[in-house]
Structure formats: C-alpha cells, structure tokens
Amino acid sequence: HAPTLAEVPVGLHQIRLLLEELGELAKAIEQKSLLRIADGVIDLLGVTFGV
C-alpha cells in the first residue's frame, strides 16, 4: 500500500523541497510543457517518497 502523508517522515528540509518542487510543477503546468510536467511529477515523487 502507498504510504499516507502521516507515515512519511517529514522535516523542514523535506517541506522546503516539496514547496520548491510544487512551484516548479505549477510553472510547468502554466507553460503547458509535458516534458517539464513529467519531470516535475517525478521530482515531487522523489522528494515525497525518496524514490
């Protein structure tokens, strides 16, 4: 099962990284760049789940 947010250890560093990645993803969506959107989603998953 996928870990819930409560199960994922989150520190201030991870929160800052998440916000940074969310900002990048939002920019990619605004620009309608599929490559940047995919990259943003992958980066966000990496920060969230350590993938």
Automatic annotation (TrEMBL):
This is Uncharacterized protein. The lineage of its organism: unclassified sequences, metagenomes, ecological metagenomes.
